Amino acid sequence: MGIWRKIKPPFWDRRDSELELLNYRRLWRTTLLSAIAVTLAPLVFLAGINFYQFEEQYQLQRNEITSHVQRLLAVNKVQLANFLEERRAALTYVNLANTFDQLSDRRHLATVFRRLRQSFGGFVDLGLIDGQGIQHAYIGPYNLEGRDYKNQDWYKEVQIRGIYISDVFLGHRNFPHFVIAVRHERADDQPYVLRATIDTGKLNSLLSATDLHPIGDIFLINQQGVLQTPSTLFGGVLTRFESMPQLAGQMGKVTEVKQNNAPPFLVATAKVEGSPFLLVVVKQPAALLQKWDLLRINIIVMVGVSVAAILVVIWWGSATLVNRIYEADLRRVAMLHEVEYTNKLASIGRLAAGVAHEINNPVAIINEKVGLMGDILGMNPDFPRREKFMEQIRVIKDSVRRVSEITHRLLGFARHLPVKSEQIHLEPLIKEVLGFLGREAEYRNISINVDIPADVPTLEADKGQIQQVLLNILNNALAAVEDGDKIDISVASRDNEQVAITITDNGIGIASQDLQNIFEPFFSTKGEKGTGLGLSITYGIVQKLGGHIDVTSQPGQGTSFIVYLPVKQRPRRLEGASGEDAARMEV
After folding, report:
1. pLDDT in tens for each of the 587 residues of the chain?
2. So what's the architecture of 418-585 in CATH?
3. What architecture is the 81-201 domain classified under in CATH?
4. Which of 18, 78, 122, 442 lies 20 to 30 angstroms, CA to CA, from 288?
């Protein structure tokens, strides 16, 4: 909710009875959703097509990696099987080509061993084991002659199956190796077993020749999942391959395996024919597909940023558009109110003019009858109580004259005359305006002090407009002061180019937050008693006359209005004036 309060459009919480016919929220939502549909639909559609095509290419690339793993598995399985088959065949051939007696000769056995190493490589030692399981002859780096193998499992297995290939182990040699043992097959000779130890370095060289890049691995494991050759990713020889349980029943297939928090990798396993070994090929697709993943992220980020930017612009644009419509409607309503008040004031003016004319007629008759009464009394000097009647006639004439002055002033304000320029003396003008307000000030015991120096220059302006300015400000001052307070009016000259008229009261003052709005049309601090037009009209008149108004106020201490008017009339329009200022200047 806090975010919504910050970003919601300005018109969202406004309630204006004059504008309730138009639902600005609905208009904003319609504009927002329509713009979003028009702008985002093509972007989302194209992004969807692009992403679909990307996913297809991504899947093709992933399938290519899987196929590559399967090809590597098949090729290396055949190579390893051939490697083991070559050495098994070589030992079988030695068995067939030699008798037990020949192989019992150490010199002959050494020659055979030397030729095996030269022809095939990888042979560490060679031993001849007789039918009782005793090593009868041995060629190699250790003294193993006479060792008894008859109770060992591998010896029993070779007797049954004719061949035995062991797992990789360290043994007393303390280096990784495995054993190939072949049983003698000739019926015309006594039974024996030819046993050779093979260095796993040959297996390592064969596997390392496969180009797997730094993101792949290939190695051998036994049936229990123990590494038979070193692995770049999973450790050295005789280390347990932890992912073995996940590969159960997956021989020949490519399986995705996840280990701890590491990225998933593809693993394929196959049994090497004629051996206890399982060949394992590992690929890390995340590394191979890193550029594709980066491209995917770039696409998502680009689309996300584009959508966010479009939404922000649409939000701002639709809110601004509807808010301007709302403000335009507010100005239209304000203008209608102004026209309504102006028309009301004009009607009141016309009514006042009619009333003044109607008052003038009986007042003229009264004046004539009083004059006739004076003439009759003048012709009768002996009339009883003549002096008292003459005094009453003078009182009636004074009252008639006063009524006539009031009606003439009222007609002067009500009459709509064209703007004209004339020489104005401020002292009689101010006293004439105070003539309208004197009774109220006298009734409320409000003292109005006027200070006008004798050297104040005359103004060249429209008399009626200046009267209107002073009357509006003085009316506000009378409304602000309490009974028994005072109002000071002073006039001062500024370099013989401007005249400053200061009207100061000691009333309630104006709050600081209201000072900037007091010249706004229909803004009033009087509640229902005020129209909000007096100061707005005053501001416009002073602007048209080429002057300006300053206001200073302290709540509880009073307010001071200073009206600056040029001595020579220079009507002007302030540069950079806002629309509201322009409206005031046209009042």
Report:
1. 566 666 667 667 666 555 555 677 778 888 888 888 888 888 888 888 877 887 787 788 778 888 888 888 898 999 999 999 999 999 999 988 888 888 899 999 999 999 999 988 889 999 999 888 999 999 988 888 889 998 998 899 998 888 999 999 887 767 888 999 999 876 666 788 999 999 888 888 888 887 776 678 899 999 888 998 998 888 888 888 877 666 666 677 888 887 766 678 888 889 998 889 999 998 877 666 667 777 778 878 888 888 888 888 888 888 888 888 888 877 887 777 777 767 776 777 777 777 777 888 888 888 888 888 888 877 777 777 777 778 888 878 877 887 877 777 666 655 555 556 788 888 888 888 887 777 788 888 888 898 888 888 888 888 878 888 888 888 888 888 888 888 899 999 887 788 999 999 988 888 877 777 777 766 666 655 566 667 777 888 888 888 889 998 888 888 999 999 998 865 444 443 443 443 333 33
2. 2-Layer Sandwich (3.30)
3. 2-Layer Sandwich (3.30)
4. 78
Report residue 128 as tokens.
Answer: 């001849």
Residues 6+ away with beta carbon under 8 Å from 189: 99, 100
Domain 205-290 part of CATH 3.40.50.300: no
Cα dist from 274 to 4, 95, 166, 239, 435, whole Å: 74, 19, 11, 23, 130
**Number of Cβ within a 10 Å radius of residue 82:** 12
